[in-house]
Amino acid sequence: MKPRPSLNDVAKTLGVSAATVSNAVSSKGRISADLKKTIRERAAEMGYVPSSAGRALRTGRSGFLGLVLADIAHPLFPQIAQAIENAATDFGYGILIGDSRGDVSIQKKAIDRLIERGADGVIIVPRHGSQVGDIGRPMAVIDSEMTPGNTVSADHRDGGKQVGKHLIELGHRNVAIIGGFKDSNVQHDRINGVKSAFPSDAEIQTLWIEDIELEGGTGCELGLARMVSEGVTAFVAVSDLHALRALTELQRAGFDVPGQVSVTGFDDLIWSNVISPTMTTVRMDMPKIAEIAVSNVIRQINDEMTDEDRQNLSVPMTLIARQSTGPAPTTLKN
Questions:
Q1: What's the CA gap between 70 and 81, in Å, rounded?
Q2: Which of 45, 91, 138, 201 has a CA 20 to 30 Å removed from the CA of 111?
Q3: What is the mean pLDDT of the chain?
Q4: 186 and 146, same structural domain?
């Protein structure tokens, strides 16, 4: 079997030092972007694979970052994990994943396990409403601007405002917002953003699914047909999953979406563009959010943090207007 090429082998083909190749592969030191790209491309061509064991012995670091997700069963979180893994790879790191399953105590245990396994730093998407204290490792938090200690977030409030403006342009003035969890900072950001777009004379009400399910049991109807008969012309859900639930209930009740009532969501989940009608939603720039979170942790690992790096960053969201929203009807016929 042909031996794998070493750092020295890659360095000789480019006329640089092995240390320069090592720094380029691990995103350490001061190397120009062009040289880093050239080195990485040559390393890939030659089939060079960094030795994690050797790096750990030399540096005392594992070369892995931990990622704790709030609920990996939710279809949004695999998308987040993929974005984080891609960003970490660009910096020469691997990812170990933990799942809090929406439980704060499990979240803490997941963080502890990742640290025990040698994670050099940890990126956390916290359970809604929870705050993460010092974990004894470099750390980044992806959540809401309202979350204490947050590192980076989507601009959820502006995303909600974009939805509100979109509905106003379509003539909607009687809107119901569908929320899921009252202790979620992200959902409150989105809801407050929607409300901020409407004039004071608009009729805006908020419907919390958790309240209805406590009263009627899991799987109960939300009463959306009654709300439409009372004048509601659009439902704004805080996530695409909640929007799908609303869309399904309205269609079962015989309403035409968007002819009689509009529905919007958040997150642009993978199926949002294939259901019928396709879902108007708001998309997060996950590659950008992931890049900020990963680079923040790695700067901490390398003791390169500046005051500017420590500022919380907010990444713009993008409204994706599709078929589930249309002009507000002047008359409703069920």
A1: 11
A2: 91
A3: 88
A4: no
Burial of 319 (0-12, 13-18, 19+ CB in 10 A): middle
Which residues touch 138 (CB under 8 Å, ≥6 apart)? 120, 121, 122, 297, 298, 300, 301
Angle at alpha carbon of residue 255, lines to 253 and 261, rounded to 5°: 130
| Token pair belonging to 293 | 């979170």
Question: What integer is the mean pLDDT of 64-69?
Answer: 96
Ranking 54-63, 76-85, 285-294 by mean pLDDT, the lowest is: 54-63
Range of the domain at 77: 63-154+285-315
Looking at the chain, the whole-number percentage of residues with pLDDT higher than 90 is: 62
What pLDDT shows up at residue 193?
A: 98
As a whole number of angstroms, the distance between CA 88 and CA 96 comes to: 11
- Same domain assignment for residues 30 and 109: no
- Say whether both 145 and 252 belong to one domain: no
Q: pTM of the predicted model, to two decimals?
A: 0.79
CATH code of the domain containing 148: 3.40.50.2300
Cβ contact 67:141 at 8 Å: no
What is the C-alpha R_g of the chain? 24
| Nearest one of 191, 257, 261 to 226, comparing CA atoms | 261
250 lies in the same domain as 167: yes
Q: What is the DSSP string of 28-54?
A: -S---HHHHHHHHHHHHHHT----HHH
Average pLDDT over residues 315-321: 98
Chain centre to alpha carbon of residue 164: 21
The answer to the question of residue 56 being in a domain is no
Closest to 236 (Cα-Cα) out of 327, 171, 324: 324
Residues 257 and 261: their CA atoms lie apart, in Å, by: 5
